[in-house]
Amino acid sequence: MIRSTFHAIETAKRSLFTQQAALQTTGHNVANANTIGYTRQVVNMAATKPMEAIGMTKSTIPGQLGTGVEFSSITRIREGFLDAQFRNESKTHGSWSIQADTLQKLETIVNEPSDTGLRAVLDKFWKSWHDLSENPEDITARKLVRETAKAVTDAINQTARQLDDLSADITENIGVKANQINTSLETIANLNLQIQRIEGLGDNANDLRDQRDLLMDGLSKIINVTSVETTEGNYQVLMGGAALVEDGEFTPVTAEGLLASFAGGDLNGGEVHGMIISRDQYVANYQRQLDTLVNGLVNGDITVTLPAGTVLPDGTTLNNVTYSGTARTLTSPLTVTVQGFNGLHQLGYTMMDPPQAGGTFFVSKDGGPVTAGNLALNQNILNDAGYIASSMRTTGTPETVVKGNKDLALLISQFSEMKIDFSSVATGAATAQGTVNDFFRSIVGQLGVEAEEANRQTTNAKIVVDQVESRRQSVSGVSLDEEMSNMVKFQHAYNAAARFMTTIDETLDRIINGMGTVGR
Question: How many CB atoms lie within 10 A of CB 279?
Answer without folding.
Answer: 20
